[in-house]
Amino acid sequence: MSRPHSDPTTPGNKHLRHLTELLSAHGQPPGAVAAAGWAAAMAAAVTESAILDHGTGGEEIAAVLRTVDDDTDAYWNSALSTNDWKSSTPTQVAVRAGHVAALSGRAFSSNPADTRASWALAVGAAAAAQAVAESNAPAHPTRAALMAGTVDEIPDPVMVIDAHGSRVRTADGRVLLDVSSGLYNTPLGHRHPAPAIAMLAQASSVAAINPFNSVTAIADRVAERLLQLFDSPGGRVVFASSGSEAVETALRFALSVAGPTLHARPRTFHGITAGAAGLSTYASIRGPLPRMVQIHHHAISEWNAPGVGVVEPAGIASGRPPLSATEREHLQHFRSRGGVVVVDEVLSGLGRTLWPGLTPALGIPADIVVVGKGLANGIAPVSAVLLTAEMIGRIRASGPLDHGHTHTNHPTSLGAALGCLDALDGLDHDPTKLADAARDSGLEVTSLGWLATIAVPATPRDQLVRSLSRAGVLLHLPSMVSSVDRLVVAPPLTTEADDLAEMMRCLANVVEGLRG
């Protein structure tokens, strides 16, 4: 049965036509702030209708609209005033919208659905107005209080003030091509809406919990999604905040059942926390912490069970090929004798190499799989530890073991993760695009999906940073080496063909300059 057409004479339709006229008028300058204010006013109206007898009689709506009028007046009279209003009046709109979001809780018991909608609308409006304020008066911190990812001062750090897709804008006005997807953690490109929308929707209901006594539906949804993608029926998932933390959690589980011996391949990186850092052969990564377990760095064929073996399957970033069929057979033999295999897919998983990851794509035998980096597209810190059903049984049989942290299974981050997974699942995941674009530009690459390396003459790291910057490229270089002999290329999976070609041309110019 078709839905009947609404009566154009009803009050709702009259109000809608009037609102359309008003919004059309505000589509003229100054526009953006007015639109944010109107959104906040609509959020206030939703709250008013939801709380019925306990409303403010429209006072909150009027208060929001007064801040919009203040901005509009300042805009049209800007010739007679200073430019301070460009940040001050949008800030006033943002503050008022934040107040509307706080008031939405009045309908928590009577109308939870409208409460969530009002809160999300008001928070979005506040963020929009604040974005205008910050764009009009951007802060340029001096970095005096900030320590970056290394204790050494970074020469000529890039001050990023804006980012969209595969491009970032710096404080000095340059636009750079981001060929590293941040730190390999924005596979959808900067400012993709899907993770942000899903995160805000989740935050409108449950933003945080106590992971030791509470669970949420969002955690179950993302966990089930990952277990399906990685073909692990009956398994369980623990969510952490970073790849390092996830590897640490995986080691805690694995060592509890397989003894105190760890095996890892040389020249690999698995994280910066104590246990994860101990897997590295780089001194600056290991740091001064004493080793609490026996760690052996050797080829997979030399791993002896019982024990725990940790492997990063792509290998490309560390200068080796992906796991071979022979190495996969060795891993299965290691497991059959009681060893536990942890596959670190923090970098390689979720489409960076093959979709959904190398573990299912190559049939890598694994007891635990760790994913991170692109799980929430960089909008929230989240990673995941996937445990097989058999591994869960072994852990529980070994005795009590706590593993949680304050932000374990964090709902808001998992909202972003669900939005990101939905968007990633909709991509075509053509593993040849990056290699084809590189070769079209004359570059010789070693690649697997959207992860590639380019061999270059050994070059001091600082010199290479300057060469890349002059070429208009932002590319991550490892901090644990002073001389770099390969570039790791990992642009967003959503990069358009023209942008990808431009990235490769820029890199080709850098390589040509280094080779003289």
TrEMBL record:
InterPro entries: Aminotrans_3, PyrdxlP-dep_Trfase, PyrdxlP-dep_Trfase_major, PyrdxlP-dep_Trfase_small. Belongs to the class-III pyridoxal-phosphate-dependent aminotransferase family. This is Uncharacterized protein. Keywords: Pyridoxal phosphate. Gene3D superfamilies: Aspartate Aminotransferase, domain 1 (3.90.1150.10), Type I PLP-dependent aspartate aminotransferase-like (Major domain) (3.40.640.10). It comes from the Bacteria.
